[in-house]
Amino acid sequence: MTTQTPMIDEEQILADFNYLHTRGETAFNEVNTTNYLAKRLDEMGVAYERFDDFTGLIATIGDGRKPIIGMRSDIDALKQVYQGKTQVLHSCGHDSHMAMVLAVAAYYAKRPEAIPGTLKLIFQPAEETVTGADRVIKSGKLGQLDYLYGLHVCAQDEVAGKHAEAMIPDIATRTYWVTITGKTAHAGRPELGANVIDGFSALNEKFKQIKLDTNLPYSVTTTMVQAGESSNIVPDKGTFAVDLRARTNDMMDELQAQAFQAMKDVSVNGIEVILDGNDLSPAAIPSEPAISTMSKAITEVLGADGLVEPAPTQGGDDFHFYAYDGVAKESTMLGLGCDLTPGLHVPGMTFDRSAMFDGAQIMINVVRMTGKN
Ligand SMILES: [Zn+2]
């Protein structure tokens, strides 16, 4: 009987991790990181293409046969103060994601016939700024994907060690940057002006009254406000920011419609509300075929008890742009438990390094099992 356990080089995973771990680079500055990935792919004889004007690369194993199976690793780190020094740290674990996806590359470089189609490995920059996926999509170098898999290490309080979830239910988040204008006047003659603070407080009340017909969590929160410079003048200009969160993308659309209506409603009597910009991170879009394949891939490595229900999270990930923008038909992210403490984005974050061996095996499995439901 042949063993179902794929062969992975644990020493190499640790070597890749240790190299990348000590050399974190921030969003779109992952120059050395990209060069290292390119060097490793060269050693494996895997073809890849860099992007013309930003960091990261896409490696391809296979001749273009369908299904096209994508796998994405983020590659950026965070600038943080740790032990009294400003450093760039892999406190979100993207170093481990790269090490695991490199192990997938090494495995299939030797066994391309084991891929049910063509494998595209996306080493994506700038996940932390929620701008990398968009650039990859707009580069035109990726093309359409039938499946897309991602992965993220999970905090211990969300997924325990030796356990994994077959999707990460990230929520949708959107931030508005808004200017509000009115008409200035002397503070003693307010009726001659249009006070942006009055306009803003009316608007903030309307934001608080936004109601969706759902039991799922959502929020609309004003997070920044600035207006007025003198205590005796009616201010005619202000700025503020609003943070919107919703469990699904449809709920986010509804929140957005109500927020826009509120802004329109207060744009009267000389007050004007202007949306300067907004940043969106879409919610995870559950895909039955991708999740069921990922579930099987997990079960084969961690056993039936190792597969856990997706843990609610308030996090976001620009991975979901690939499905949201229609580039990936079916997609999901592995949430890998690895005894990670004290939490993601916390300097000094640490986890059980051997969990990367399980993670790499799961990601190897999910490719092999794709389309074989
Ligand atoms: Zn991350």
3D architecture notes:
The chain is of the alpha/beta class and 373 residues long. It folds into two domains: 10-170 and 284-369, Zn peptidases (Aminopeptidase); 173-280, Alpha-Beta Plaits (2-Layer Sandwich). The chain contains nine helices and 16 strands. The chain has helices at residues 10-21, 31-44, 94-110, 132-139, 196-208, 249-266, 288-302, 321-324, 355-369, and strands at 47-50, 57-61, 68-74, 78-82, 85-89, 118-124, 145-155, 164-165, 172-181, 185-186, 218-227, 233-234, 237-246, 272-281, 307-308, 328-340. An eight-stranded mixed beta sheet has the order 1-2-6-3-7-16-8-15, with helices on both faces. It has a four-stranded antiparallel beta sheet with strand order 11-13-9-14, covered by helices on one side. A hairpin with a 6-residue loop joins β1 and β2 (57-61). The longest helix is centred in the C-terminal third of the chain and has 18 residues, at 249-266. The radius of gyration is 24 Å and the shape is elongated. The model has no long low-confidence stretch (mean pLDDT 95).
